[in-house]
Amino acid sequence: MTDANPQILQDLLSADGFEKVETWVSKYPVERKRAAIIPIMSIVQEEHGYLTQELMDAVADYLGCPKIAAYEVASFYSMFRLKEAGKYVISLCTNVSCMLAGSGDIKKWFKDELGISPGETTEDGIFTLKEVECMAACGGAPMLEVDKQYHENLDLDKVASLIRELK
Amino acid sequence: MVSIEIDGKKIEAEQGSMIIEVADAHGITIPRFCYHKKLSIAANCRMCLVEVDGVKKPLPACATPISDGMVVKTQSDFAQESQKSVMEFLLINHPLDCPICDQGGECELQDVALEYGNDVSRFSEKKRAVVDEDLGPLIETEMTRCIHCTRCVRFGREVAGIRELGAVGRGEHMEISTFIEQSVDSEVSGNIIDLCPVGALTAKPSRYQARAWEMAQRDSVSPHDCIGANLHVHTLRNRVIRVVPKENEAVNEVWLSDRDRYSYEALEESERLLKPMLKHNGEWKEVDWETALERTASKLNMMVQTDGSEQIAAIAHPSSTTEEMYLLQKVMRGLGSNNIDHRLRVSDFAWQKFEPLHPELGVDLSELENLDACLLIGANLRKEQPLASLRVRKATRYGNIASIGLYPLYHNFDIDHEIITDAETWLGQLAGITKYLYQNQGDSDKEQWADAMDLEGLETLLEPITVRDEHRNIAEMLLKGEKSSIILGASALEFSYAGHIRLLAKAIANLSGSSYGFFPHGGNSVGAYLAGSIPHRGPAGADVEQDGQHIKDLFEQGKKGYVLLKTEPGKESVIADKARESLEQADFVVSMTCHADDEAFEYADVILPVASFLETSGSYVNVNGLWQDFAAAVSAPGEAKPAWKVLRVLGNLLNLKNFDYVSAEDVRKEVKGRLSAVGDRIKPKWQCPETLPRDGFAPRPVNMYQIDGWLRRSPSLQDTALAKGQEILKRPRLSPFHNIVGGV
User: What is the pTM of this model?
Assistant: First the structure.
């Protein structure tokens, strides 16, 4: 195996996606372009659903940073997925406000109704449940996020109708 | 300078130093795990919390710069309370497996826990367990013991330049890992074992071999490269258990290369030769020393009488000790032959008379890190001189490096200007740089200008040369750098026009006000020159009546008798095939070797078992001319004897004068005595070559773990990806600013 290849990322993305990547990189000084690693990995994840080793390597090569640095970032932030996920990834907050307002019941609802615990995907591959830390919407606790949309002041009925809609 | 007070002690210290540095310098102990003087400050273990007057919170001593009038308390109730709390956190997940842990007894966590830990844990929750990493054959992992100090991660990022380990995951799930199944391939990977404050990373070959308190520590010097890294050799019942670095800021700092660290394995793990062997009617027989040496002496004597002394030759490995090489040449010259050499990997001897007294680097090893500009010629530093490579890497913080070589090289530092050339145009490339400098002489306002050399003939030589942009860039880089250096590596020395390369490099150095030097092969080439293990000069550069033949002629023309010292020319020479052929055709070959599987069994007549490195006393002289002597750490197995003793007896059997040495030190004193009389008799000379030939030949480089008999027989090293040529070739992808000073 030889040196890193910064070209691979372009082949792995749509023209649109790669343009977005380049826009992000252009916002930082050349010698600090790795600062764009989080938005770039988000773009890559959006197109591919989750981050494989191949994709993370390509991002590292593109930014000229050690591959392990890409793995560190991807494994640190909960918004990055390293395993295949369902069509919809539901991020359920279980931090203190949501917990007090009943997020535990919602978590249990997912287990009872859809048969998934946090980190699992439904058999039909549609829903993945993720337990996340505070998403700064305590005023509307309990809350969850799906498809970049916050759903607040939840109760079990609201969750059930949301899931029906998505299906 | 500012004045501060630590634990009531008034101290003057440099502004900007951290509390922990000042405390260390004054013998005040502050516990720590993540802080290491050679690494960047992470301040993530929090063990070094101290109290500072006027600050309500405890401050980490490693990351708190001192200021005038600061009053620091490391032992106050507040400081101790803070340290104990941190200790309690660190022990939450650390397993209580000290009795089976290799680090037990020399563990920083154990020591600090004894002082600051509670004897009973308040945590009844389960401890976490972490899956181990497979980092290859050199490093054993027990990742459950890891306390996340990140010293190993920072070592890769900052010192080695190739980051393979990282902190993956977050919070309680954080693990030190390569993340993907991958070994750590760095040539200096073993240093993370020393850095690890706990038993998470330990030396694989010595696992479960001994307890820290059982071992005796003896000092030695590494034989594998001309840095001369200082070693602590840890032994138990006459066995070497492991080798760790001995700190020497001027030589190896606190590091060792993996081959310095693990080559000791060859002492026990290889087939050792235990008795002298004699070939009789084509059969090898074990004999006693007397028989073997008498046979050798009588055969050598006879050959001198019947064939003439010019028909015998001696070849020493450049990692032999100075004393061994001195006695070897003394035997040979006593017999009337100047045919002695150690330059197994040199092929151009045309300019040998122009050489200085001994090979030299031209700049102190410790100064490599302060160079403003450095031109590497044919030098694959990572593989040839791993520890020098770490120094040059440090220079890239402020300085610029250029490289001219025959292959794309994977340095562990940024290269600003690189020329990858071929054998045909190599000299032309150097001439291009020379020409630019020659045409722009005197334009630089560089201080410390080297004495101008008489460069007669250079103008004519350079006339047909075209100066290209890359030549100008390198030349300008050298002119711009206040401290600049030209350094030649193995490919340059092995090239068939190595003399031309050296002359041009010297002209470049002179015209650009740079120092000039090179890293010779083996651990003791410098000692070999001083001891007179060369055909054209005696010990201490003494004139010889008639030059002996150099090693290339010795093998190409074939001699009737050969004496080999710790070398297998068929594996080491640049003309290996030719060397083997000559050895096979010789009438008489005697080989002094450590190994029962030495290639000499295929062509020698007498094979003498000699002590290995770590088993003999002696000295090596490093590339800065630093003499480093050492005693044996363990005794040699079987009947093997230190080679200097064997040569002493041989000298006596041959009735040669003055062979009555009692110790290696006697021999050393004799060499040094002769050196003190050298003065400036030998001055390196320069002369313009007449042409720039294009028909040069470059031998294939040797793998870094194949260069001597011990490395070839070190099982763990041979098992690494590096030995198999399977390492992932990586270059640092970041600007040095990021890599060394900060950033992730």
Answer: 0.91
